[in-house]
Amino acid sequence: MEKVYTERQEELKHVSTHGVAERGEVATDQYGQALVEFDARRERRLCWKIDLYIVPTVALLYLFCFIDRANVGNARLAGLETDLGLKGYDYNALLSVFYISYIIFEIPANIACKWIGPGWFIPAISLGFGICSICTAFVDNFAEASGVRFLLGVFEAGMLPGIAYYLSRWYRRSELAFRLSLYIVMAPLAGAFGGLLASGILKLSHFGGLHSWRMIFAIEGIITCGLALISFITLTDRPATARWLTQEEKDLAIARVKSERVATTEVLDKLDKSKILRGIFSPVTLGTSFIFLLDNITVQGLAFFAPTIVRTIYPNNSVVSQQLHTVPPYVVGAFFTVLFPYLSWHFDRRVMLFIVSAPLMMIGYIMFLASKDAMVRYGATFLIASGAFAFGALCNANSSANVVSDTARSAAIGSTVMFGNIGGLISTWSFLPSDSPDYHIGNGLNLATSSCILILSIALLFWMKMDNRKREKVDVDAKLAGLSLLQIQDLDWKHPSFRWKP
Predict the structure, then answer these.
(1) What span, in angstroms and rounded, lies between the C-alpha atoms of 464 and 459?
(2) Any stretches that span the bilayer, and where are they (predicted)?
């Protein structure tokens, strides 16, 4: 087999990128080896151009997506519970309503994103959740607030997986985690920026006829709507339709993505039920999704309850001071959100960084449970944020890297984020009023989940390596004998030449 592969490589050394960019043409041989050699300098120039045109827009949209989701925590400090007459567990129930719709619409939203096209779908849902945020400024009771939060979940469901899927159309496997981090870093920055923005808004005497927490929802929602309208113009579906790329750059962008996908004849395949199921039920998708579920209990818990936790640490400070104290942990968390995916890009590894991140969270929750000192607990929030936020980029990149087709990738990313938001739903009940001010149940739960992440990540890494060793012994020619090209493509990650990429 090695001799055949060497001869084939010599024959195909001079295949053009234009040839493998064409629809109906494969970019790998049946052993999964690329059919063309790429100029590293041209690739770097192309990546830089894509970075400048695509990443800033999706990053800003996701920033305000997360702000519009988490600003209810800032509004709580500014009197939302009192004005709406919330009692007991009403606040937790209000948070849960958002996640019910968010979970239900997660996978359908990502399939719709593929069908409609990200260039239209992402701006449209951004406009939708911006309008929902504005509407929250006018609610007067629990029922109205719950209805708006449910609709917010419907529109936001497609955002995180939609952008991850969108970027997978443009970047290689090793490049994707770092690019995902450049917009997922907006989650911790939203915690920091959201706190600063809320503090600034609350200093206003009024906004139109609105006062206090209502101004937060209205102003932030208007900003979101403005960004969404701009993105209708700036986002483009895929490399082939990008007006800002030359034809040569379009060919290169398509060819280099195809060159990592065994038996793929077109980057954007048609929706196919078997490939959707391959994406959802890949062992790596399921394992990664469960890890993301556990991590999101921490991430979403921080987003919703960080202001409340800070209030228990500094009970005598003013509301504005409490809001500002939520900022520094998020800034540190944002640094690690980019650092770990950058290392992933450099080493083309993802699961190993799961293993590195989990102990940071574990140590943070141990500090919170073991000490009543305010500064120790405040320091713990820095460690927790440092370990937790990077999983958003790493988990989605891991699910994306371990399927072949575009359809399977859409389903895999949608599944991963859906599981993550089940974790978000759990997080809304992890810090209960009856458990304050020390929140032993919430912190104990998060210590358990971060410990499970460490164990599961190690198990996933060993399984991927073990299964790859089994695949090395398979006779590729014998396995593919008699199969049509369509049947071979439907194999996706079951293709004998496919290897898991941890």
Answers:
(1) 9
(2) 50-71, 91-113, 120-139, 151-168, 180-201, 213-235, 280-307, 327-344, 351-370, 376-399, 411-432, 444-463
Q: Which of 252, 246, 261, 242 is nearest to 19 (CA)?
A: 252
CA separation (Å) from 185 to 94, 293, 310?
Answer: 26, 18, 22
Q: Which of 213, 215, 218 is nearest to 78 (CA)?
A: 213
Residue 493 included in any domain: no
Q: What is the pTM of this model?
A: 0.81
Whether residue 249 is contained in a domain is answered as: yes
Q: How far apart are the first and last CA of the chain?
A: 25
Segment 301-334, tens digit of pLDDT = 776 566 667 777 778 887 777 767 777 888 888 8
- Which residue segment(s) compose the domain that 19 sits in? 1-36
133, two tokens: 């945020």
Q: Indicate whether 25 and 62 sit together in one domain.
A: no
Q: Is residue 279 located within the same domain as residue 403? A: yes
Tokens describing residue 157:
């469901």
Query: Do 191 and 316 share a domain, yes or no?
Result: yes
Reported confidence tier of residue 70, pLDDT bands at 50, 70, 90: confident
Strand locations in 272-404, DSSP E?
none
What is the distance between the alpha carbons of residues 82 and 143, in angstroms, rounded to a whole number?
15
| Integer-rounded Cα radius of gyration of the chain | 23
